Amino acid sequence: MTSKSKTAINRDDRWLLSRLDHIWDQYFPNILQTNKVFIKFGRFAKYRLGSIRLDKKTKISFITITSMFKDPNIPPEVVDHTIGHELVHYAHGFSSVHPRLHKYPHAGGVVKKEMAERGMGYLYESYKKWIKSYRQTVRITHGW
Ligand SMILES: [Zn+2]
Question: What pTM does this model have?
Fold first, then answer.
């Protein structure tokens, strides 16, 4: 089988952490990590690609990424986009201990705007392309 060559980079939680570190260094150098931040694959969610929550007791932020993204056929930029999106929430004070900058996490397209300003516009472009064909696939599979 060809599965070996395809999974040259094994997409596990360690891989996710390396992507998070890279994205943080590259695009969020001015955002201090003022609490512990964990990242891991969650369940195989078709629509909720990523999420971030703060454990109020331990003050740990948890980023969860859909296990669907373990599939090596999904462009790594799409995974990076999802991590970048959650980090914008973190930077804006949602599910982090940073001051809250907006009333709502997605108010007026602030996430997309912030990503573009931080140089992640190309990630959004990859995501947009992928989500378009993905939605079509899901629609066909489910007969919508
Ligand atoms: Zn969001």
Answer: 0.91
